[in-house]
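agent: user wants the full assembly modeled, not chains individually. Plan: 1) parse entity lines 2) check alphabet per entity 3) run joint structure prediction 4) return tokens. Steps 1-2 passed, three entities, 872 residues total. Proceeding.
--- entities ---
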Amino acid sequence: MIAIRDVSVSFGGVLALNNLTVNLADSVVGIIGPNGAGKTTLLNVFSGFVTPACGSIRAFDTDLLAMRPHQRARWGLRRSFQTEQVVDDLSVADNVRAMLDSLPVTSRSERERQIEKALTYVQLEGKADELGSALNTYQRRMVELAKTLVGSPRIVLLDEPGAGLREEEVDALRQTILGIGEQFGAMTLLIDHDVEMIAATCISTVVLDFGELLAFGPTAEILKDDRVKAAYLGIEEAE
Amino acid sequence: MYGVFLVAGLALGAIYALSGVGLVVLYRSTGVLNIAYGAIGALGAMLAWQLEQMQYPEPVAWVAALLVATLLSVAYGRLVAPYLSYREPVVKAVATLGFALMILGTANYFWVEAPRRLYLFTDTMGFELLDVHITGTRALVLVATLATTFGIAVFLKHTRIGLLMQALANKRELSSVLGVPVIRIETYAWLISGFLAGFTGLMFGDLVRPNPGALTFLVIPAIAAAIVGRLESLPMTLAGGLIIGVVESMSTLIKPIAPYRSIAPFVVAAILLLWLQRNRKLTFSGHD
Amino acid sequence: MTEEKIAVTSESTALPRKSFATFPVTRPTLALLLSVAALILIVPPLLDALYLRVFISSVIFTIAATGIAVLYARLGLVSLAQVALVGVGGWVTLRMWHATGLPFEVNMLTGAMISGVVGMLIGLPALRMRGLFLALITLMGAAGFQILVTGTQFPNGGEGVLGIAVTSIFMPRPVLGESDEAMLRYVCVVAVLCVLFVELNRRTRPGRAWALIRKSEACAMASGVNVAFYKAWGFALAGFIAGIAGALLAATLGVLDATTFPASESILLFALTVVGGAYNWLGLVLTGLLFRAAPALLNDIGVNGHLAYVIFGAGLLHALITAPTGIAGQILEGLKQLTKRRVGR
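--- prediction returned ---
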């Protein structure tokens, strides 16, 4: 369970997040909202790149904000970025291995097992020795995803993972996200503009608008909510 | 006793401060921290010295120094800098190192390391203040520094070109899309910076010594002053330069550290950087 | 799902497309070992006394350049203090020998470790700031060292902390490097060990951390990497290697002089590392040659040494604008094109 309490973030006078309070408990939770609503800012607060002016985030009985950014990753917080961050001149396996480097995994064989499990899960086990530069967009996103799944993840934050992917790739991504909770025991928070993706994967959804909590509840209800539709005016037409 | 060193320190600090201002104005408008700043001034000052040796009238030496420095600066800004305009600041600065090496090599080629004196007409002028004799040159550099810093601050805030320079400082790509004539504005920045380099080179050559190496590495305390100004604030750069100059000069009075007093810029800059980064968690390479 | 390759051109990233990432005995490594073996066995007797010294010096500065390359090629960080750190290593080694008389290798390692610490300390004020500040603080550190060492000079057998005597006592060569020929072989072996040590770092945890940091510090943190630590580690390693170079220089000459370590030399060595090519050992060999052998050659044909600065400065500009992988990168790229054409791909 993640308990977000009164989290506020301001950037030089602009209130990016305004007293956000919400409890997240489902295995996949969506975060939606128009551009500038504060979605990525919220993720940056989780990651530790942004310090909130006030508020707290407790996850699984741990005060997340008390830990330094790289320590949160070790604790089990995982993150993907809007622009995928695969290192070109490391191999796929090394990209994933880098995540394990900082974790107290017991033995070398256990490490390799975890890497293999993650790569097999995203169907890239055959590409383990290829350099990052040789992959296409979908493969790079999958490597980034695999990276989030090694070493006992507790919370996986995904920031628009489907951006730039084709339809069949998005379908595959959908299935991948759905299986995270069951296969790896982690809770997933998913930011995306793709309403179908949100509807298909997220059990409950948070809606942000101008840094404030507009709505929160089971996804199906949220997507029918008039206020949500109003906030999204214009984005619906693009779908 | 203290008075003499204080005055000397203020004069030296004024050179540092004015150089720092030259660096900051250029950096804010172009993203280039010009490590060749000292070298540019060096060539100007050495040329002035040479012309003096050849018995040319002093105004010729002044004009030559200022002109050469300004031209070198603008030449780099128009011919080389554009190739690197979309690279990270550190790469742009490293490129100016290449320019500095070229100028230093040229200067060393023509003027071998040797004891020299540069004479300016202001050396013979002077006045007494509280028992301390202040030469005209020292007074000139102090006044010039204060006036220039103030003048540039006004220029940046209240003239069209100045405002456009500020626009460039904030978002270069955006400015060009909005129709700001980027190259022309940047040229002004290189021009101002080059002129200041020539002037500070002359002053340093007069007050310290006109040697290519020493003049080139005037850029070190200038950078330290600019760092005190966080590469953006002119008043802080001014303060930083003056403080560094005074600390360095007054350290002559403390026997054990006297031979090492020129290390003052490094110490000041290091302390300041440690202070500045105390709350930071990370940098975002490439975009900062 | 169809496989599509996205063209990743070398210009868009600063790094070469394929770095030398496979372990352990690849063709590049083999080439390295063979060249060095050739150098060690065949070349020394062929050189006259002066050029023997010149090449020893070149290899020593190849070692120093290796440290620069760790920071520049792996972390994308600019250090303008490497020659100063060479001086630190040399100073400590000399002081150790004059004080303790221990074998050279012990003094060398001590010098290297202290240089590593100093290297880390110089970078410390700017570890969390933009790369530009880091470059600037190292430049100021180099200038600071120049001032310090001009005042303290290098230990030459005297009393007290600074160990200055009126007549110099020369530190003897290491047992394995008594003659100049033997010394050339000795420094070559040490150079290979340094390069291999850096490679070891690169292929294990530090290397992965560095690659992540270079890509994005945010991503590195999100992957659990302690960014400040691994940057500091890079500086420590670069400093350590500089210290090794300093020790070897002290051993070759027996004494060191403050005029060998002005800030301009640190700038020049960095410039030549970029010009030679920071991403490959061949580039580092070229760096050492350009730094020491080229000026000697120019001197022989009557060209003023100062003009070397002009040429190298221009070379740096050229490298930054058009050839980021340096001369070595261009050579290797050219070879690759040649072999491709032969195979008919």
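agent: reporting back. Strands of chain A lie at 2-11, 14-24, 28-32, 54-59, 62-63, 77-79, 155-159, 187-191, 204-209, 212-218. Chain A is about 40% helix and 25% strand.
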